[in-house]
Description:
By secondary structure, the chain is α+β, with helices and mostly antiparallel strands. The protein has nine helices and 17 strands.
Amino acid sequence: MEQERNSAIEVTIHKVSLNFPYQFDFAYYFNEKFMSIVKWLRLSYAKEGRLARYLKEESPSSSSSSTAMAADFILKIGHILIEVGDDPFEVRLSDNYILMEDEYKESQLRWAIARQKIEENIKKPFSALSESKVAELRASFDRQTADTYMKRSKRLYETGAAAGATRTALFTAKAEELTLHLAADTSYNTYEKMVAILRAIDQASPYPEDLRFSTIWCRQIVLALGKVLVSLRDFPQPMLNAREINLRGILLGAEQEASARARRTCLIDMGPAFERVAIERSMTTLKFYHDISSKVGSLIYTHGACWEPILQQVNLSFEKIFRPSTDPSPTLPWWDKMRFLFHGALHVVSDQIAIVFHASLDPYNSTELIEISFLGAAVQLLTGKIVAGADLEVLVHTASKYDECRIVHLPDINVAFLLNWGCSGNRYDHHSVMPCARDKLPEYTCNQVHDSYRAFRSHHLNLSASIETKEGRQTQQTSAEGGGDEGQQQQQQQQPPASPPLPPLPLPEEKTPSVLLYNSTLRWLENKMFMITGFPRLTRRGKLYNNVRPRKMPFTRLFKSIRLTIYLQRLDVSYWSSYSKSRGFRISSCNLTHSAEHRQTFVKINDGLVHRYFVWFCC
C-alpha cells in the first residue's frame, strides 16, 4: 500500500439479529421498492454519477493530488444471528410427532404399573377382577391417555408459543467476534488503476476494448471471525462449523455498464395525488474479483441424502430473500453462478478441513457418519484449477466398537483437479454475457427459448484428477570430511570404488500410506453406500406449491469424463476378520500407479426414458 496513514470510520455493534419470516418476500420489497426509490433519488438530486467522477479525475486537466481518498472502514460485531423461518405446518408436524412419541412412552410406563397392580389383585383369593373387567379398565386407560395427550398438546401451543420455546427456524447462521477492516489506498483510488487491478486478477478472461463499468470499487480487506455455525432446523449435527477464520487480501467489485437491452423500466408509486414515476434500472450483476489468503483453524462441512428435502426448502426460501433475475433465460446452475460472479485466487491454510457424509436416513443422526478429513491442508482455488496438499484420512463413525475407525491414511499427498468446462463459447468469457429485459427480446428468439448465457453456460465437465504422495523416504548418505571441492576430489581418489547404495530406511507408521479394513466395517460400507449416492427426492414441487419449473440437473450428471491418476510410493493394506485382529492378511507394496479414464454418456431409447450407463477405459 502506498498510503501510510488514513482516516477511519469505526462501528462497534454488540449483536445483530436478522429474522426472515416464512414466505415473506424480502427481495421484492428491498430490491423493487427500496432500491428503486434510492435510484430515483440519485437520478433526481445527483449532479454526476460515480463513473463520470472517475473519468473526470483521469482527465489530463485534473491533477492526481486533488483526488480525495475515501476513509477506511472498521466494523466490529460481537454476535450475529440470521434465521429463516420454517413452514408453520412443518413445525406443528414435528412438535406433534415429538409429543406423540413421548406420550406413547409415558403411557407404556403407566400401563406397566397398572398391569402390575391388576396382576397382584388377580392373584389374591376371591378376586372380583374378571377378563371383561380388565378389558374395561384397559379401554378406560386408553381414553384417559387420549385426554392426557390432548391436554399436553393444548398446553404446548398455549404456553410454548408464548414463551418462544417452539422451534420456528428452518435455517440458522451464527457468527461470533467479527472484525472487518476495509482499507482504501492511493494505488487503487482511480478508475484506470482499478481496471488494471481487475485485469491482473482475471487474466484468463478476454477483455473487450469497449468495456465500461458503471460501478467499480476496490479495497484491501482484513477479516477475522472467531466462530461460524450454520445449522438446519433443530438437527444436532451442524451443516457448517468453522473456527478461527482470518482473511487478508484485495477485493474488487465491478458492475458492467448495461446495454440498451439490459435496462428494464420500473414504476414508482408516489401516492394518490401524484403520477407514477418511471425509471430505468440496470440488469447487470455485481461481480467480485479477489486475491485473498486465509487461515482457518478448522472447517467441517456436513451433508447427506437425508438433508436433501430440507436443503430444497432452504433454496426455495432463499429465492424470497435474494433478488431473482428478471432475465427470461433459464436459471444458471450453482456451478455456473460461481464461475460468473467470482474471479481470482483464494489460498486457504487450515489445520483441518473435513467433509462429513450422513450414512443414515434419519436427519437427526449423529453417530453413523463417514468423514473425509484433510489435516494440515494448504488449498489453492485458481481459475479452472484446484490444488491441495495435506494428510488425507477417511474415518468411519458408527455406534459400535469400530467407531472412529481410520480406513484410509495418506500422509503428505498432493491433490490437483483440472476443470475443463465444456461451453459453446469461451468458458472464461463472462464479460460478453449481457442480460435482456422481457420486453426487449431479439426477434430471432421469438420461436425459441431465449438464453443470454448460451455461450457461457456449461454443457459438460471434463475433470482431470491426480493424487500423488511426496518423497518421504530417508536414505543413508556419507559425507566427506574436510572443506572445499578439491579436498573432496582427493579423498574420492584414495577411496575404493563406491559400493551399491544402501536400501531406504523404513518409514514411520504415521508417514506410511495405509488402508485398514475390518469385515464388519466393509459390510457396513456396502450397506450404507446407497444412502450416500442415492438420488434426492422431490420436495414442494407441483401446482399445489406453485412450483412447476423443470427440475435442476444434479452436479454428478455434468461430468463427461474423469481422468484419474494415482501414484503412491508405498502402500500397506490390512484386512482383519474382527476387531481382535486374530485372522486377516496384510499387503505391502511400493510404487503403486493407477491411471484410468471414466466416461459418462446418456443414450436415448425408444421407450421414452433416458437411460444412463458408464463406460470405463483403463490404461
